[in-house]
Design the sequence.
């Protein structure tokens, strides 16, 4: 049966697949080394030749063997993003702060040509991070939060350079961190409450994490420096979404029934804690900010949706994510980099 002209046209348009670099080199009339450099985008190959080789590769469906490339370069192209939950075992990675930071990290890593592997870790011993960085699967690791694992992170950082952590910076620490000045942030929040006429403050947060401890220290410093007598009382409040409502409800019951100084301002260690606090105060017929003013920390997008809208301390989460990835790329290249401390910003809305 004679071949249909349409079938013949399709057959002519389908180009044979190229199986390896040697075949591509023969077709392009260059060496295999030139092909390898052209596909990698190296400037050693002039732009015209590089484009011609890449066009032939596309037309013939050729994709370099990624495993072979990784064996040659001793790179996996994979970055680990690790969330250690030593002090908050019930906290979920769906937490709005985790998701905001992770989203920005994912964008920046994709733009840099890397894949990522996400790990939520509940440390059962001191070697959880050793196992991750020694797996042979990663070019580097980004850790979101220090939790109560400062010493474990510090020990690994002494021998593993491509490691960057979101968290607080301590004088003399080894591991490279990116994070806000949490002491200043806590101070800004408390100063806002004091400036609005509040004198007896509460702090809702779990200070076993260095970042939260710094926020409480900053709030205490503001109270100590106040021009008129003021107090601050810490109420331990975990960051787990499962625990926050019951714990904050207990705090409010204690505050409203206390025979001591009436709490008139609450510094919350996170926006999530602050949003729960606003809701439970409303349910207790407490007016915010007239009776009790409330501040948060992070400035998540949800803070503009509360009633009243939440006064909070803004962390530059997007800028911090970019800084983490930039520092990690430098460390993968063998450079030692200093930590980055970002200035927080007080965002005044209706809750304080």
Sequence:
């Amino acid at each position: 049966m004679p071949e249909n002209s349409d079938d013949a046209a399709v057959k002519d348009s389908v180009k044979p697949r190229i199986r390896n670099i040697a075949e591509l080199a023969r077709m392009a009339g260059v060496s295999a080394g030139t092909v390898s450099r052209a596909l990698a985008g190296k400037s050693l190959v002039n732009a015209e030749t590089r484009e011609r080789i890449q066009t032939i590769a596309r037309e013939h469906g050729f994709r370099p063997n990624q495993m072979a490339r990784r064996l040659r370069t001793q790179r996996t192209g994979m970055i680990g993003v690790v969330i250690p939950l030593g002090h908050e075992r019930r906290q979920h990675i769906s937490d709005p702060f985790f998701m905001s930071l992770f989203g920005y990290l994912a964008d920046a890593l994709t733009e840099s040509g890397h894949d990522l592997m996400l790990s939520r870790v509940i440390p059962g011993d001191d070697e959880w991070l050793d196992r991750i960085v020694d797996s042979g699967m990663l070019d580097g690791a980004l850790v979101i939060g220090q939790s109560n694992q400062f010493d474990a992170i510090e020990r690994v950082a002494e021998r593993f350079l491509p490691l960057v952590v979101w968290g607080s910076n301590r004088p003399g620490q080894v591991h490279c961190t990116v994070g806000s000045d949490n002491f200043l942030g806590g101070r800004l929040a408390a100063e806002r409450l004091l400036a609005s006429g509040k004198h007896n403050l509460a702090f809702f947060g779990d200070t076993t994490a260095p970042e939260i401890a710094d926020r409480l220290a900053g709030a205490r410093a503001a109270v100590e420096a106040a021009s008129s007598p003021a107090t601050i009382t810490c109420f331990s409040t975990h960051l787990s979404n499962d625990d926050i409502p019951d714990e904050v409800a207990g705090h409010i019951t204690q505050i409203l029934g206390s025979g001591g100084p009436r709490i008139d301002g609450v510094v919350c260690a996170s926006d999530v804690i602050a949003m729960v606090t606003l809701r439970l105060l409303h349910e207790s017929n407490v007016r915010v900010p007239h009776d009790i003013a409330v501040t948060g920390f992070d400035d998540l997008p949800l803070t503009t949706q509360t009633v009243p809208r939440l006064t909070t301390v803004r962390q530059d989460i997007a800028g911090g994510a970019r800084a983490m990835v930039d520092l990690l790329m430098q460390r993968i290249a063998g450079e030692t980099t200093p930590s980055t401390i970002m200035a927080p910003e007080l965002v005044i809305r209706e809750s304080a």
The longest strand covers residues 78-84. The longest helix spans residues 96-111. Residues 8-12 have pLDDT under 50 and may be disordered. The radius of gyration is 27 Å.
